[in-house]
Here is the input.
Amino acid sequence: MKSFPSRGIGIAALAIAMAACSADPADTPAVALEPAPAEQQLADVCPATVVVQLQWAPETDSGPIFGLLGPGYQVDADNNKITGPLVTGGKDTGVDLEIRAGGPAIGFQTVPSQMYVDSDITLGLAHSEQAIAAAGQQPIVAVTTLLRNSPQMLMWDPQTNPDWQGIADIGKSGKPIVVSKGQLYPNWLVARGLVGQEQIDASYDNSPSRFVSDPSFAQQGFANAEPFTYEHEVRAWNKPVAYQLLKDVGYEGYARTVNVRADKLTELRPCLSKLVPMIQQATAEFMADPAPVDAIVVDVVERNPKLNPYSAELATYGSRALIDGGLIGNDTDGVLGSFDEARVQRIIDEFGPILREGGADVPAGLTAKDLVTKEFLDTDISVTG
Here is the structure.
């Protein structure tokens, strides 16, 4: 196997980050790049611009995608996108990469729906349950994943609720669980008997003000963000929060899966055969040294006044939380960016009935092979340590 250590220095990626941060977007000059070898040239098999739709604003949980962004990139704040050469190992593949922000930037639409509204989108990032919910009307197929496990969590104030040790204790308390509208996992928590339906409060607006003023309830969060921001960046709080990851109570959903529209899989097959291993490679490089990607993400957010601030300290914390927390890495087959199809089927079996009850058109007999494919993975790419 090609084995990449989980610590190290990505010199080429560092050079990319430094070049990218060197100028204002309006002044950023084109950078002459060494061409990638013929087997990594994408111009004849991929769209001239590979468009990637993020789930949210740029953050390091989408780090490997930013690892493919070469120097001289441009930030278009008006349209919430970043465009530059698509590189692998610091070399030009002959096509451009366009990364689009999600969440507020697309009116909080789901990524699958956005992919079917805008046919220019090549790849979209999603959670497993979103793909299940979309399978009837807007089917997507995951070709790799950036994260092995989800960083989603529930958090609480350990001083206000000192008896809470985890999500089960929150459920027993009967206190509210504040989540944002459209989240699918709260119904899974209810179906599992971990919390009561009456506890779910889907009014979270991503502001810390409610929690700060009344920390009696539990709130959604991500392990690569809120634990740091609440302790170090929310000045009205400035103390630790307690939390438990959903994965620690049995949630198996994949996060940040990289998807294509199901009806475009055949058309994109030649492109994906070359591009997916590049994403795997970028993931390995991110794990070895996330600092170059951290710098790029901080830079592109800083250049876009529409986005919430994303500090260098938060980027560093977030990347380390993903890497050190085991949320990114090889799957059960030992391949980076791969899928465990039995796990995917369990996700379908659990979420399918819940989503149907909520009105989603989940096809009967939906299987893992409908949602994921390992066809394009380079099985020699793995990480150690």
Notes: The chain has two domains: 2-147+253-384, 152-249. Residues 152-249 form a domain with the D-Maltodextrin-Binding Protein; domain 2 fold (CATH 3.40.190.10). Residues 1-27 have pLDDT under 50 and may be disordered. The CA atoms of residues 304 and 366 lie 40 Å apart.
